[in-house]
Design a protein that fits this description.
It is a single chain. The chain is mainly beta and 75 residues long. A five-stranded mixed barrel has the order 1-3-4-7-6. The chain has strands at 11-16, 18-19, 25-31, 34-41, 45-46, 51-59, 62-67. 24% of the residues are buried.
């Protein structure tokens, strides 16, 4: 399946924590005027509820994510 370019650069919140190289979690991403769920892969394990940034699309509703602290939301 082709990559979903629209999701790259979007933020989301993990519904199911990732396990690093041991397996994916699930992320709810704000994209296309709504929210969509994707399988989420990350280099290191991330817990449920973590805010993440989508850095790559693997196609077939799978994305690579990293933990994201929104710099503009800081006090």
């Amino acid at each position: 399946m082709p990559a979903d370019e629209a999701v790259i650069g979007c933020t989301g919140r993990l519904l199911i924590g990732t396990r690093g190289s041991d397996g994916p979690g699930e992320v709810l991403v704000r994209v296309r005027g709504g929210t969509e769920a994707f399988l989420a892969w990350s280099p290191e394990p991330l817990p449920v509820g973590t805010t993440v940034l989508v850095i790559e699309s693997r196609g077939a509703r799978q994305v690579d994510v990293i933990e994201w602290d929104a710099p503009l939301d800081a006090p």
